[in-house]
Amino acid sequence: MKTCWVGPGYTRGMHALPLMLAALCTLAIAWRYYSAFLAAKVLALDETRVTPAVARNDGRDYHPTHRWVLFGHHFAAITGAGPLIGPVLAMQFGFLPGYLWILVGVCLGGAVHDFVILASSIRRDGRSLAEIARSEISPLSGLIASIAILFVVVIALAGLGLAVVNALYHSAWGTFTIGVSIPLALFMGIYLYKIRPGRVAEATAIGVVGMLAAVVAGEPVARSALAPYFSLSKNGITTAIAIYGFIASVLPVWLLLCPRDYLSSFMKLGTIGALILGVLIVNPELHAPAISAFADGGGPIVPGKLFPFVFITIACGAISGFHSLVASGTTPKMVTNETHARAIGYGAMLLEGLVGITALMAAACLHPGDYYAINVATEKFSAMGLSMVNLETFEHEIGEALQGRPGGAVSLAVGMAQIFANLPGMKGLLGYWYHFAIMFEALFILTTIDAGTRIGRFLVQEVLGWLWRPLGEVHSSAGNFLGSGLFVAGWGWFLYQGVIDPQGGINSLWPIFGVANQLLAVMALGLATTVLVKMGRARLAWVTLGPLVWLVVVTFSAGWMKIFSPDPRLGFLTAMRQAAAAGQDRAAMTHGINAGITGFFLLLVILVLWACGRVCWLKLRGGKVLPVTEEAWGHAG
């Protein structure tokens, strides 16, 4: 008999504690043994080797950074909406598929992907993924990678931004709290690098206390005459996010990006630690089944079947192509010692997997009626025949409408608040915990948007440099402002299309984001495998080749279905024809664009994989290939 959310197949009694303990043990073993193997045998990290941050220190983009401050920046930059939203949306299929994929995927795929790309970029002057492809494979491959990466980041930031919009619109409490984090981060940057240089503990204390105070102050602000100034519409939140992304991209990295990401990491790690502790103490019952009836397709959130769409939906929680851009973008330009790459590359991704597990547990604790009432449009939920259990009570205690807020962010915040409110002495504080969770989620996402916009600016400047060389210089103020403006306009347009989507936007943006993100991971793993083969480590290249083969099967299956499926809820072309027949020209155009972008991604990745395979084949056969381009900066001391 099929297991479903409700009905005869639903079995009660499963609790979160055993699953959380198993996850913690698995991640600890992977860190202790597998990451050490990768560092020593596969990558041969050398602590005496001078890094580009030291050799090219310019105080703007190349800047030697304290290991844990950089760990905070990197973790904050890679850990966006994906590990929070993906597992929550994938809960439609049941908790077991997502749980297993996150654990296996992050240990053997995602963390390896991040670690190898970061180490490769550090040894190549902090070059971007596209630049590495250009120098290690061919100039044409570099051009193709640049185009693919640019489009992927645009779609990714639009998808991530949509989660913030759906969580913060008409929420004065949440918007005030997030708004305070920006001037607070600016002060931290000035304090840490100008007023009291190197006083990391002092700056941390100021930042953490300030953020907690902002959460508490948000409640009276939301009830005061100031509330209308912070209760923004969806379009208002969209505009505010775009302005923030632009400012974060043009300012020096030490002034806003690094301190804000570091502050966000403390809040993220502290919250995740508290949530894990809450799960261990409360041991909540999982109201979701192990595998639901929607595993065969037809779900109201993700219309496809469990394979391949649970992997595409979870996305960043297990492996993320976007991480390769951070690992070859801002982070390698700030690494002080090469051996730090193990903790920053592999360790940060393991923590992201743990974030995904905790999000999964929090969502699984919701009753199905409450889960779907939040994540499905009101009209569609009414047709499902489910009843809400606790949601109306939650709305009363929180003081905000929660129904019909798709995207996963709100349902996750409710699940987290429910766990925290069940801790001893916490009863009656559901509203505070909910808004704390919203702040926590928004910090996750906005730190990805600021780092992603900066990375996108680098990519746009590369293209501008082909038109006029001075614009391509990293230090060019004109190139900085122009590249940032063009890139923000790109992802801002897609975000706006998602905001005005009557279905809530997540149905159109998240699937294409998932496919594009995983295809970028395919491209990065192909490049990583090629680098290992060229370094003479072909016998160890299975560490990247294994995840690569699996992702090729998953992503190309999903990409084909998203374009050609006869189900209009799944296939872009079928939905386009249906919308055109109904006279919905705008919707038809959107579906057509989505189909074209997905097909374009598939073609670009095929070309890059073919080029990678050709180089590996020539190298193994003793043919002529481009030389390995590791920079010889020398050794310290």
What do you see in this structure?
The protein is mainly α and 637 residues long. The chain has helices at residues 17-42, 52-55, 67-78, 82-90, 95-122, 129-136, 139-168, 172-195, 200-222, 227-230, 234-250, 257-282, 306-314, 322-327, 341-364, 368-375, 378-382, 391-398, 409-421, 430-467, 477-499, 506-534, 542-564, 572-581, 585-620. It contains 25 helices and no strands. The longest helix is centred in the last third of the chain and has 38 residues, at 430-467. Mean pLDDT is 85; it is low at 1-11.
Task: Summarize this structure as a short list of keywords or feature phrases.
637 residues; 25 helices
What's the layout of helices and strands?
Layout: H1 17-42, H2 52-55, H3 67-78, H4 82-90, H5 95-122, H6 129-136, H7 139-168, H8 172-195, H9 200-222, H10 227-230, H11 234-250, H12 257-282, H13 306-314, H14 322-327, H15 341-364, H16 368-375, H17 378-382, H18 391-398, H19 409-421, H20 430-467, H21 477-499, H22 506-534, H23 542-564, H24 572-581, H25 585-620
Helix pairs in contact: 1-5, 1-15, 3-12, 3-15, 3-20, 4-13, 4-15, 5-13, 5-15, 5-22, 5-23, 6-7, 6-22, 7-11, 7-20, 7-21, 7-22, 7-25, 8-9, 8-12, 8-20, 9-12, 11-20, 11-21, 12-15, 12-20, 13-23, 15-19, 19-20, 20-21, 22-23, 22-25, 23-25, 24-25
